[in-house]
């Protein structure tokens, strides 16, 4: 395919194949990239156009909580695989090399689902796997909390706003704290929580550089409990759902970050509520190296 498109020469292809025969277990694409014959981006574009493999931008993808539970962190890190969406019999998975037979076979064997591969850059895969599955060093990640929350709430009816969420609701409390910490670490200015009707999960998005980017989706049976937890932190009335409320959260009393947040709740259709939180943390110190020096124009 790469030779036909004139992206590499037959000699470069033959040299890569010869290295495989000599015991190099990597794919031809990886060997060619290391040799400088072709870039990873060129290979990505060729796969999309020639093989019809869909490409996905993970930074803006709303991950399906059910898909995240389908594979283990070890399997995700081993094959650099990020599950995207799950149906009854199929699982869409983002891979750096969607043609890897070994990865596809092991994923299908482990999940008992038909795997539909998608293409994603290695850097985005690494970031998504670390965010949702952890870095393998014991640090808790939002995806692990989301998975545990789904396991704890499986089959349970939706918790109402009158069900106060205290420190005993350990998983949800840690999830809310982690959400706020991640927003601050990622440089977000606002956190938007959108409650959706029926059996749709609540959508959490961060505003970064003026653009809303997906973060997580919370199971629908926890949407009221999530709002209640934030109201408790902001010292708002958890029983009031028919009018807007505003308050503030001094996050230093709940977590490790000295963050202050302005909180606004807004009633929506169906007796639901949305929440917007503006992060008002103290300005961070900037190093001299990060300054941009401009020549005077006079």
TrEMBL record:
One Pfam family recorded for the sequence: MshEN
Domain Type II secretion system protein GspE N-terminal: from-to ranges: 51-137
Sequence ranges assigned to domain Bacterial type II secretion system protein E in this UniProt record: 167-282
Source domain of life: Bacteria
GO molecular function: ATP binding; ATP hydrolysis activity
InterPro entries assigned: P-loop_NTPase, T2SS/T4SS_dom, T2SS_E_N_sf, T2SS_GspE_N
Keywords (A to Z) from UniProt: ATP-binding, Nucleotide-binding
Cellular-component GO terms for this entry: plasma membrane
Segments traversing the membrane: none
UniProt record similarity statement: Belongs to the GSP E family.
Record's protein name: Flp pilus assembly complex ATPase component TadA
Species assigned in the record: Ramlibacter montanisoli
